[in-house]
Amino acid sequence: MKTDTTFQRSFDALQQDPGVILFTALQWIPQRSSLKRLFTSHPAEYPVGGEKTVEISPGWLGTVIEDKKPFLAADLTALREVFTDSGLIQQLGCGAVINVPVLDDGNVVGVLALLHAEGKYSPQSVTTAVEVVTRNLADLIQAFAAHPTDVPGKDTV
Fold first, then answer.
1. Which long-range contacts (CB under 8 A, 24 or more apart) does 69-73 make?
2. Could you give the 3-state DSSP secondary structure of residue 6?
3. Taking a C-beta distance cutoff of 8 angstroms, is the pair 115, 89 a contact?
4. Could you give the residue ranges of the DSSP H alpha helices within 58-101?
5. CB neighbour list of residue 91: distance below 8 Å, 6 or more residues apart
6. Is residue 136 predicted with pLDDT exceeding 90?
7. Of the given ranges (44-48, 128-132, 150-154), which has the lowest mean pLDDT?
8. Which end of the chain is less packed: N or C, by CB atoms within 10 Å?
9. Strand, coil or helix: what is 20?
10. Taking a C-beta distance cutoff of 8 angstroms, is the pair 48, 40 a contact?
């Protein structure tokens, strides 16, 4: 299985509904409490292989990783409270985010990040995004599993 194909298919479906400007697939690496970017719609600004550790918000971690629930920041104010790179996000025309955890047997293996213009996402948008992930769950689990998580990483955007 080609992992990029799986992530691209998810991206394509999510672009249709609820809509996406910026999309990334992030692998959760519990050993380091970090997220590693495996796929991105904007490789110049958010390169594949980039890893986030220290700037992950405790509130975000609690919702997405610990509670295993989707996260919604519907406006720029809410987004700024969670993401240190909100300036770059805003430059790309985004001001709202949905993060959907990908679960394998109850464990978070990855997170899909959807970003759009401020005010474009609602609770219904989250439901739609979760439905797309659910439809593609087996392939997404395989795509995340295809990448080793025991490689030392570094903080990058």
1. 69/101, 70/98, 70/99, 70/100, 70/101, 70/126, 70/129, 70/130, 71/97, 71/98, 71/99, 72/96, 72/97, 72/98, 72/121, 72/123, 72/125, 72/126, 73/97
2. helix
3. yes
4. 58-60, 76-80, 86-91
5. none
6. yes
7. 150-154
8. N
9. coil
10. yes
DSSP-assigned states of every residue in 89-106: HHHTT--EEEEEEEEETT
Q: Strand, coil or helix: what is 151?
A: coil
Six token digits for residue 19:
């809509």
CA-CA distances (angstroms) from residue 85 to 26, 105, 150? 15, 31, 26
**First-to-final CA distance of the chain:** 27
Q: What are phi and psi of 61, to 5 degrees?
A: -60, -40
Q: What is the pTM of this model?
A: 0.92
As a whole number, the mean pLDDT across the chain is 91
Rounded to whole angstroms, how far apart are CA atoms 46 and 31? 23
How far is Cα 106 from Cα 46, in angstroms, rounded to an integer? 28
d(CA 61, CA 68): 9
Tokens 């104010």 identify what position? 77
8 Å CB contact between 91 and 85: no
